[in-house]
Amino acid sequence: MLFRMITSVLLTLSLVEPAHAVPSLIPLLPIIGVLIAKGALLVGSLFFFVLSLVKENKKLFLIAGVVLFLLFVLLMLLFQYG
User: Which of 8, 35, 45, 58 could form a disulfide with 69 if both were Cys (CB 3.0 to 4.6 A apart)?
Assistant: First the structure.
């Protein structure tokens, strides 16, 4: 009961106006997309590098890993701040 009285007094004496703007993550969607793409390329390249050490078609998996890693490096150069 005391807590409700204190909060009601504090709320009535508050000088803060209600917020009119609703925060949104929509402007961050391109950055989030680039981060997801970078992560997928890096994990994919590491996956194929590991497969090239284990499986029989070593050269094919190594080429796939190198291609994905080069795409990752290209994305890192194009989108440095994302």
Answer: 45
